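User: I'm curious whether this sequence folds into something compact or stays loose and floppy. Could you predict its structure so I can see for myself?
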Amino acid sequence: MIGIIAAMQSEAEELIRKMKYKRTATVSGAKYTRGKLFGVDAVVCVCGVGKVRAGVCAEVMALKYKPDYIINTGVAGTLTDKLSIGGIAIAKDAVQHDFDTTALGDPRGGCFIDGKFEIYIKSDKKLVKLFEKAAKAENLAYVTGTVATGDCFVAGNDKKAEIVKYFPSAVCCEMEGGAIATVCFINKIPFAIVRAISDSADGGSPDDFPEFLRQAVANSIRVLERVIKEL
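Assistant: Here's the prediction. I'll summarize afterward.
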């Protein structure tokens, strides 16, 4: 069983359309669609935007469906000149860039999990390699690095610079992956985050995001399909 989480309906609707033998359940306000996706048992959920909704969804998925893997897919803003619109960001790890207890002497971005301070939550290495292979096969530009998650839509160069200052390995910014990674870490579920770039996380992002959303979603699904077929 593979669990797939997307924040928005537009990021998941094509996956759900391709699914066979569908049945649905609504839990904590989110709809879970289960069936066969590219020949593999899967459950897809549209969690809603932001870390709280993503965390709730991932926990429900972990407990109710008990997936072997959880994959967070969708779009993101780029934080590197190596990735432009349509390119693929693959998470080697995830961080919550807006988690800040530095006033207490802690590093930026970390949180306590099982009594230990964690900053970078590492993705499953097998899944990372499969996504890299898939991006190459689809002839898509990709970069593997840190996915930086926060409860804000980044749309300015100052905010971009701040994130990269604290997390130099960050390649994209979005609003759910770090929360999903944390839930997977707690529940010992291998996970991956793959995001297609929809905007440059700068002043033009409010216009770029809706314009390039469809292209970015299509690219993320192309690589996701290849990976699912190999699991």
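Summary: The chain is about 35% helix and 35% strand. The CA atoms of residues 83 and 228 lie 24 Å apart.
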